[in-house]
Specification:
Elements (H helix, E strand, L loop, with lengths): L3 E5 L3 H9 L9 E7 L2 E7 L1 H5 L8 H7 L4 E4 L2 H18 L3 E5 L3 E5 L10 H14 L5 E5 L2 H10 L4 E3 L5 H5 L11 H9 L5 H5 L3 H8 L2 H9 L16 E11 L2 H22 L1 E12 L4 E12 L2 H9 L11 E13 L18 H8 L8 E4 L9 E4 L19 E13 L6 E6 L2 E15 L12 E9 L4 E7 L12 E6 L2
Parallel strand pairs: 2-4, 7-8
Antiparallel strand pairs: 1-6, 1-7, 2-3, 5-6, 9-12, 10-11, 10-12, 13-14, 15-16, 15-20, 16-17, 17-18, 18-19, 19-20
Length: about 500
């Protein structure tokens, strides 16, 4: 069963304008004005304009009279569409092999089999919305079993993310308004006149009278929102995409047959990449079935490669996830991300150098769950939580070394946790402390190590200090704890104690 994500960009025109012109005051309400002949109306409004009562469709003269100092920009649908296309191509490279534009204000993608690379559907949606926000774009996202349901939920709910469990689409869409069915406005108006208010009301009505009066569109949209009628997503493709395809006169379905043709496509793709001096970093296999459904597999590599045997293995390991149904009529393989690849000749030497390449292991693990693979690297900072960062497993060295003058715990907690401590101020280590409900008696201690705040990061850290101690309890476990402040001056910290790390 497919899982479809619909991304709704409710203020795309105004967000695009603000991104293009940072000089616009963020507190100034902004509207986009469309025109037809002498008629001018509000085509889009940012949140500040919405709070002041401005709405889409309102005459431009009325909006200008209601809000003093209103910023009014002429609509540019072509620029909005170009922005949406760029965002769709970005989503294609990051989230799923099957991504398409859903104009004028959305993106749709089939994430079946791809969400695990982002840590699951919940993390995938929240990360997606946060990344759009980081680009200055408001977004809402919903995932359901059908395009129609995801599209409706993303535009009808107030929450930023909505996840409908598998098989519960019907229950989720029954109470949605008729406008969520993607029907023409005149049909929606006529249905409301007849007394229909929700999708559930319309679904409970016999189809024949509706078809006789409104045509087949109402029934088609109902079938699509409930997932009874397939709505294939035609994936977007960059202009310079390296892609190879194979169509079949007779549909195929056997696993060994699929594997054979996937191997041939990998070989063809590598030949095309070689002509351009490129190596693949991310490849997508798109499976077109005879029942008009699309499946996809994505394989990523830690560095650019053109190794036919290795790429074939990455796909072969996941071929069993393909459900051929009544048969596959077409296979396509595309290098979604390709980078320059220069063949390096190994230097001749009398001494055989043994170099261990761990990138194949990274590739295997990464295709099972890409966000779990990373390296830990030091950052030039005295504050412990700022002194470490996650980098790509094959990234270059950052040029900073770990501090060795004081011992550091093997496990640093994500956030310091409050502990209850019995200790003499200002410089004595704790006699005992209670962490997560368990009281521990301190047998040995070393410290304090004073760490000062970084005033250039935050002005509140101008006089802030922490005093760290390495303590060992009577069971032999070692912990890294600190007191906020110097124990004398209240301006330096709250004098509360925290546990920040655990030693192996």
């Amino acid at each position: 069963m497919a899982r479809v994500v619909s991304v709704f960009l409710p203020t795309l025109p105004t967000d695009r304008i603000r991104r293009a012109d940072p000089s616009l005051n963020p507190d100034t309400p902004l509207v986009v004005i469309a025109r037809s002949g002498s008629k001018r109306w509000v085509a889009a409004a940012d949140p500040a304009a919405h709070k002041l009562g401005l709405r889409v469709g309102m005459p431009a003269a009325k909006a200008q009279a209601l809000v003093q100092g209103l910023a009014m920009i002429d609509a540019d649908p072509a620029a909005d569409l170009a922005t949406l296309e760029r965002l769709t191509l970005w989503a294609l490279s990051q989230y799923s092999p099957v991504v398409a534009m859903d104009p004028p204000d959305g993106i749709v993608m089939d994430t079946e089999g791809a969400d695990h690379l982002q840590g699951g559907e919940d993390l995938m949606l929240s990360g997606l919305v946060n990344r759009f926000r980081g680009r200055g774009l408001s977004a809402r996202a919903a995932i359901a079993d059908s395009w129609g349901a995801a599209h409706a939920l993303a535009r009808s709910m107030d929450r930023e993310t909505v996840i409908i469990p598998r098989g519960e689409t019907a229950k989720a869409v029954n109470r949605l308004p008729l406008s969520s069915l993607r029907l023409p406005a005149e049909i929606v108006g006529s249905l409301r006149t007849l007394g229909f208010a929700t999708v559930g009301d319309l679904a409970a009505t016999p189809r024949a009278p509706l078809t006789l009066r409104f045509g087949s569109e109402v029934g088609r949209r109902l079938n699509q929102i409930f997932g009874r009628l397939a709505e294939p997503i035609d994936p977007i493709r960059p202009a310079d995409l390296v892609e190879v395809q194979k169509s079949f006169a007779e549909p195929i379905g056997a696993a060994e047959t699929i594997e054979k043709y996937v191997s041939r496509l990998v070989r063809q793709l590598c030949l095309e990449l070689e002509k351009r001096g490129l190596g693949v970093r991310r490849a997508d296999l798109i499976v077109h079935r005879v029942d008009n459904k699309i499946q996809s597999l994505r394989a990523g590599t830690a560095k650019p490669v053109r190794d036919v045997a290795w790429l074939t293995k990455l796909f072969r390991d996941r071929i069993e996830k393909i459900e051929p149904g009544f048969g596959i009529e077409k296979l396509s393989l595309a290098a979604i991300i390709a980078e320059p690849l220069v063949e390096m000749q190994s230097a001749s030497s009398l001494i055989e150098e043994r170099i261990t390449d761990v990138t194949p292991l990274i590739d295997v693990l990464g295709n099972r769950g890409g966000q779990r693979i990373f390296r830990v690297a030091p950052v030039a900072s005295d504050v412990p939580e700022r002194s470490v960062q996650r980098i790509a497993p094959t990234a270059d060295e950052v040029g900073t070394t770990w501090p060795l003058h004081w011992p550091r715990p093997s496990r640093l907690l994500p956030h310091p946790e409050t502990i209850e401590v019995i200790a003499l101020l200002p410089d004595h280590p704790p006699v005992s402390f209670t962490w997560r409900g368990k009281r521990r008696r301190v047998k040995r201690a070393d410290g304090p190590e004073r760490i000062f705040g970084e005033w250039w990061q935050r002005s509140s850290e101008w006089v802030a200090v922490r005093d760290y101690f390495v303590v060992e309890d009577d069971a032999g476990e070692r912990f890294w704890i600190f007191r906020s402040g110097d124990g004398v001056d209240a301006d330096t910290g709250s004098r509360k104690w925290f546990l920040h790390g655990v030693f192996a």
